[in-house]
Amino acid sequence: MEGYTLLGTEDIPLDRQNPPPPPSGLYETHEKLIEHLQTFYVTHGAAVVTLNSNKRKTHGIMKLSSITIVCDKSGKCKWEGAGKWSYRVLEGRHNHPKSLDPAAHPSHRKFNAGQQVLLQNMTTKHVAIPAHEAGSLARDLAPETSFFTNKDIYNERQRVQKRAPGGLTPTQRFVSNLREKGLRHRVKYQEDRHIIEAIFWTYPTCESNWRRFPEVLGMDNTYKTNRYGLFLFQIIAITPHNTVANVVFGLTSTEVEEGYSWSLAQLEEFRSELDISRPSIIITDKENALKNALAACFPLTQQQVCLYHINANVKGKINTLWKDPAPETAVETASANESPSPLPAEEEVESLTSNPDAPDSSAPGPSTAATEDKIPSQEGLFKAWKSLCWQAEEEEFQHKWLEIRSAYSPHQDKILDYLEREKMPYHHQWALCHTRHYRNFGQRTNSPVETAHNAVKTFLVTGTGHLLTLGIAIKEMLAHKERSYKAKSAEQANRAREDHIGRGFLGHLPTKITCIAIELIIGQYRVYCASLLPRNTPLSPCNSNCTFMQYALPYCHKIAAAEEEKVALTIESVHPRWWLDEPLDLEEPLLRIRDPKMVQNLHGRPRLPLNNKLPVQRSSQSSQRSSQRSQLPSSRAGGRRINRSLKRTATTAEIEAGTRGRGRQGRGGRGGRQGPPSSSDPLAGGIE
């Protein structure tokens, strides 16, 4: 067959045949010899491997004497060579065509020493880097000889994890790290077995966060963080900068009350060991097992239920159980049904949570639920429910509930029964008329815990990793949050310098508390200022219903008292939770500089000093106008214009006439007295 060479049982085109290796040279080691052959065949569609080797004792030491090198497809390919620091070709033909890419050969997909060190560092310290990004970084070290795939990256990471010191498994290493580093932890094993059932631990950074912000805690479970199906249980606090501060972590195999009771018992032990005050508020989802365990372990702590989850569940039940009141209104009702958010919009929250002590405040929402939508609809019922959640007084809350029942009964009795049975019995844990009396610092949802769950998962490559991988991810997440918190604190300090320092009633507070606290106080100051307007009513007497006491900040009544006494607010009137870590130094000269008084009218030309107009006498005004009229030239005095207009472009005839006239004037003025200009010259007497 012309153009083909028969090798074994396959016909291979000449351009696809593998060439024999080049002539052998002398090599210092057999590794150099193999590297030479691999370098040659990486561009010729083949690869070699070591089949066997022989050793010989030399001066009492066993040394490698010879090796047999074959094609990596040696099962069918008979190419073979023997090397003794040089190679001798035994079979120079391959019975397979060239490979399309070197990645088809495992021998070419190996990592060099630098790449192995890089991947080991990424596996043990930077677990959040995906395989494709790790591969890109490794290829940058040797771009011309890197043919590995993502699967090779995964396999190399697996080998690194298995090469544990002392032969420990990843789970054993995770527990060993907790012990060696002296971290506070508890481990629960199954009875008569050494299988981990639950782990509860914390870090020094978390202990510091807990000691700083112990009043309000949030807790919840998340899933898909490890291959063992253990639930990640997180307990968090909220910083005065509205960021998440992790407190404790836990892994548990169950979500029943017994499992939660064990975790909360460890939390109480940690609290006693650290001498931290008990939390005053704990926010959770509507999970009965967790709530029952909390009632047993922390009986004096007020429980709150996440308002977002309450509204989301109600919204789902309304969409599921809704019944059209009449067939003829089904189409109109369907058009009116939309999907409102479980929580009100920002402007809606402002109206629903208006301060009852503010002037002209009234109950939010319409008088009846039916007036919100002329046609009863799912959206109308859900809006009425959200308005119920944000009622500021208990009487208004009960009145609003009766309105909803009367407006949507009997057609929506299933929905109303669900609300009566599942939500109303513990409305004191989510309704604003109750939660505003708790010192929760404005926290009404459990969303910060969801944020903490998402933060952990962003540092995980996969949700089916070992516990050791999860522990490394949590440590990286905590380090990242600590850096973010410091940056946020510095940003808030700079913002305080720019926006708030210099307000008289605040005194030195902008240098000592966070910007969020300052903005809340300024909001109360606006309420006080609004009450001073003639058309508004003054502030009502301060009582136990003051909504702002939940923030532990000076409210409008205290600001009014300070203004009447002409004194500034002090740091003692602010809860320590709002204090800055490092107060600003007001004695710094730059911080004492104040802006000049702002000018109100900046339009037009500058006027007299202080932007004031001086009065002018009437006689001076009349004489000034007459003198101005006398100075104006008359349009009819002296006949027609003798000078050309400066605004008009001269014509060609005028330019030529002007040139001739200047020539005559020059010749006439050379020999005697110059006469008067000619009236026929249009440019005579004009501007030259």
UniProtKB/TrEMBL annotation:
Top-level lineage group: Eukaryota
Low complexity bias: start-end ranges: 353-370, 617-636
Residue span(s) of domain MULE transposase: 216-313
Residue span of region Disordered: 1-23, 329-376, 602-688
Compositional bias ranges of the Basic residues kind: 638-647
Secretion signal span: none
Membrane-crossing residue ranges in chain numbering: none
PANTHER family: SWIM-TYPE DOMAIN-CONTAINING PROTEIN (PTHR31569)
Name of the protein: MULE transposase domain-containing protein
Species annotation: Stachybotrys chlorohalonatus (strain IBT 40285)
